[in-house]
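user: can you give me the structure for this one chain? tokens are fine.
assistant: on it. calling the predictor now.
[tool input]
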Amino acid sequence: MTHATSNPKIHEGRNLKRFREMLGIKQDALAFELGEDWNQQRISTLEQKEKIDSEILEQVAAILKIPAEAIRNFDEEKAVNIISNTFNGNSAANAVYHNPVYHPIDKLMQLHEEKIALYERMLKEKDEMMGRLERLIGGR
């Protein structure tokens, strides 16, 4: 049995749509970036094509800031299989440990301290300005 080198299940238009949606980019915005020959309907049509012209795919990939190969080779079925095989059951070998870079409370405290420091600087500048005004008025 021989296997074809290209996977017929890969639908470049659908992949383009998935990446665009993951990045939160609307069809109108993508059309605008591609130029005046493009509109929302043309992007919709492009996303329905199984195979996208290489030059257009490269332009779209550059706008989305992703490799064109990601759009060409993304296989949803393989991705789902990898995810399901990685996270099956309660095995410690498959556990994902999330260590955030910061704790939300620490971040909140930092923002509060920055706000207080800003307020103190503003009060100091106000006092300095009032002193200058008093000297100007007193000098007359």
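assistant: here you go. Helices lie at 12-22, 27-34, 40-48, 54-64, 68-73, 76-86, 104-138. Residues 104-138 form the longest helix (35 residues).
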